[in-house]
Specification:
Length: 295
């Protein structure tokens, strides 16, 4: 395993297992499989609605909690002083642990500054070992760093050969922020798994295009959290430490960059409205559920 060292000295496994879009029915089994094949870094989030299953899998694994690096993320509807703390305490209960290794702000919208104040306090109290952000584009990230005394230690962003976020990584380096990748395969969009450059490089090393994508990000100093519900794929994704891409191969992959998201842009006003609407709908559902309980 390769590790990165965060700005506060905490060591973070550079390759982990992500549970985005893993259903509650499958999640506990998947995390147990991931731990059994050798993963020691698990990434979940409040908005994935599977923290309880992740916690159950870790508790049942028999692996010492100190050997597992656990990440979760605060969702927008919980942003704000007081609200963020309450939501993290709920996450701790669901995850069946008394501390979280890395806590991230999941999106750059809403009361991020109020949420960050809560996260800093949780970090100072030892309930969280490291804090960071997710989906903060370079302008928002720089603003966040400049207007907060405590700087983020990680920024989790979409990073794969078709959207490499090279400029963002330069600024992350300037602020001592470790870059992390969600969707390191771009979910296969744009034909990434069949991309002739990636396939050809993989064949030269006896590896798949997926393994090449992971190795490429690792060599860029990026933390990766691939997701799969298949044990065999989990093993393949972990089998990327016995080869190295040459400078020429790295350059060929760099040339694939379209500098465009394969999903959506957080800078799109319509997407900002969509996030706001979703938060409002969830709040309404929560209020309705509370009202029914009071009956």
């Amino acid at each position: 395993m390769m590790y990165v060292t965060l700005s506060n000295g905490v060591k973070m496994p550079q390759l982990g297992y992500g549970v985005y879009q893993v259903t509650q029915d499958e999640c506990e089994r998947c995390v147990r499989d991931a731990l059994e094949v050798g993963y020691r870094h698990i990434d979940t989030a409040q908005s994935y609605f599977n923290e309880e299953q992740v916690g159950s899998a870790i508790a049942a694994s028999g692996i010492d909690r100190g050997d597992i690096f656990l990440t979760t993320k605060v969702w927008i509807e919980h942003f704000g002083e007081g609200s963020t703390r309450a939501s993290v305490e709920d996450s701790l209960r669901k995850l069946k642990t008394d501390y979280i290794d890395l806590l991230l702000l999941h999106q750059p919208f809403g009361d991020v500054f109020g949420a960050w104040r809560d996260m800093v306090k949780l970090y100072q109290e030892g309930k969280v070992r490291a804090i960071g952000i997710s989906n903060f584009y370079v302008d928002r990230m720089v603003e966040f760093c400049e207007f907060n005394e405590a700087k983020p230690m990680v920024n989790q962003m979409e990073r794969h050969p078709l959207n490499q976020n090279v400029e963002l990584q330069k600024w992350e380096t300037e602020y001592g922020i470790v870059p992390e990748a969600w969707a390191p395969f771009g979910e296969g969009r744009g034909g990434l798994f069949e991309n002739p450059v990636l396939v050809e490089i993989g064949q030269a090393h006896g590896k798949t295009a997926a393994q090449v994508m992971l190795r490429w990000n690792l060599q860029r100093g990026v933390v990766v959290i691939p997701k799969s519900v298949h044990r065999e794929r989990m093993e393949q994704n972990l089998d990327v430490f016995d080869f190295e891409l040459s400078a020429e191969e790295m350059a060929r992959i760099a040339a694939l960059d379209t500098k465009t998201s394969s999903f959506f842009s957080h800078a799109d006003p319509a997407m900002v409205q969509w996030f706001a609407k979703m938060v409002e709908e969830r709040k309404h559902q929560h209020d309705s559920a509370k009202e029914k309980k009071s009956w």
